[in-house]
Amino acid sequence: MNDAVAALRAGQPVVLPFDTVYGLAAEPHAEGSTRRLYELKGRAQAQPTALVAASVDALRACLPELDTTRDWHRLLPGPLTLVVANPAHRFPWLTGTSPGTLGVRVPHLTGPTRAVLDELGAVVATSANHPGGPDPRRLEDVPEEIRAGAAVVVDGGELPGTSSTVVDLTGPEPRILREGAVPATEVLRRLQAAVRST
Questions:
Q1: CATH classification at residue 190
Q2: 54 close to 117: Cβ distance less than 8 angstroms
Q3: Number of domains in the chain
Q4: What is the DSSP string of 53-92?
Q5: Collapsing DSSP states into helix, strand and coil, what is residue 108?
């Protein structure tokens, strides 16, 4: 995975297999690399994008203010995106119009993407499709122009094909913003809290 790591460090987007779908990833610490990812995907700059970390410890390194009193750690690692408070307004190019919150993921991975995340600590990543397009389960489901525009494309075979469940943990109780790979009832079971779908 040296080619993918080198491309990401150079600020170029890459296509990687995640635990849910194929994702378009970039180096998260520089605004320019995220902007290139947005352009390739055709994503509006006002839309937020998740920070995907290799581990909970790597996530804490990126967000030292992360509220460790919350029960979010019961959900990770896994196919969930957690919207958490971002009081220091870190990674403003990932937060869209809500600088006080940030979407984070710690996927359960093996193989090449695991190696990339272990090397880099974290990436910014979104599904490797055009906005509103079908979730890419196989590499051939990734639009040709995204594959052509990425510096490196990694084939991980067929994936589960269901996007992560998005859970907002910034309020007094969690809210499901998008039900995906993990059912709301399972989130409820893990958090032992009321989940209000929106």
A1: 3.90.870.10
A2: yes
A3: 1
A4: ESSHHHHHHH-TT--TTSGGGGG-SSSEEEEEE-TT--ST
A5: coil
CA 141 vs. chain centroid, Å, equals 19
* 115 residue type, one letter: A
Based on its alpha-carbon atoms, the radius of gyration of the chain, rounded to whole angstroms, reads 16
Beta-carbon contacts of 41 under 8 Å, excluding residues fewer than 6 positions away, are: 24, 126, 128, 129, 130, 131, 146
For tokens 């610490």, the residue is 29
Does residue 17 have a cis peptide bond before it, meaning omega lies within 30 degrees of 0?
Answer: no
**In this structure, what is the dihedral angle of CA atoms 148, 92, 180, 43, given to the nearest 10 degrees?**
-40
Strand partners for 176: 167, 197
Tens of each residue's pLDDT in the chain, 198 residues: 789 999 999 999 999 999 999 999 999 999 999 999 999 999 998 999 999 999 999 999 999 998 766 667 788 999 999 999 999 999 999 999 999 999 999 999 989 999 999 999 999 999 999 999 999 999 999 999 999 999 999 999 999 999 999 999 998 888 999 999 999 999 988 887 544 444
> 146: helix, coil or strand?
helix
Residue-number span of the structural domain to which 136 is assigned? 2-197
Residue 91 φ then ψ, to 5° = 50, 55
The pTM assigned to this predicted structure is 0.93
Residue the block writes with tokens 């594959």 = 147
